Amino acid sequence: ILTVLGNSAVLATAVKRSSLLKSPELLTVNLAVADIGMALSMYPLAIASAWNHAWLGGDASCVYYALMGFLFGVCSMMTLCAMAVIRFLVTNSSKSNSNKITKNTVCILIAFIWLYSLLWAILPLLGWGSYGPEPFGISCTIAWSKFHNSSNGFSFILSMFLLCTVLPALTIVACYLGIAWKVHKAYQEIQNIDRIPNAAKLEKKLTLVS
């Protein structure tokens, strides 16, 4: 309920002030869409199955649940990665260059994110990797057990782990560390000028916030 209400509020606010939205804010809207999609398509089945102590439905509902989880999960991860990269580029660019990130550019990026997520989500349906029940039997996901049991499962899980988790996560960390370093250097220069009292404390706080 909180997930649906919270993300619905984000979407309602975005619609209300759509003409005032800046280009990077479209990624926040996309993240809300992915989160609310996950909540509506997956949570009811997961909660009901948990109360039942076993998965409700057969193989079809299991594949559906895993597909939705993978689609929206990868979409969320890649959206967070795109947000980090754009924030890094804006932080390290002049005002004129940062304005070059237009709404059309971000819309194309969002379309690519969804296509990328959809591709990885349907690959198990096409024979590379597979979906199946989780160990506790109350939800479904990628068949992790095939990591050791087959070369097909091993190659899929390894590729997915690197391209959908490790690479985006490292990119996010690198971008935010870059932003923090940029803020650190900027306020170090201000401290040297000595125009702001308690500049050192201010620098530490702003670096932490970044």
Quick structural overview:
This protein has 210 residues and is an all-alpha fold. The chain contains eight helices and two strands. Helix content is 75%, strand content 3%.
Folded structure, characterized:
The chain has 210 residues and is mainly alpha-helical. The chain has one domain (1-208): Rhopdopsin 7-helix transmembrane proteins (Up-down Bundle). The protein has helices at residues 2-16, 25-52, 59-91, 95-98, 103-122, 146-149, 151-193, 199-209, and strands spanning 131-133, 140-142. It has a two-stranded antiparallel sheet. Strand 1 (131-133) and strand 2 form a beta hairpin. The two termini are 30 Å apart. The mean pLDDT is 85. It holds the Pfam family 7tm_1. Residues 6-210 form the G-protein coupled receptors family 1 profile domain. One of its GO terms (molecular function) is G protein-coupled receptor activity.
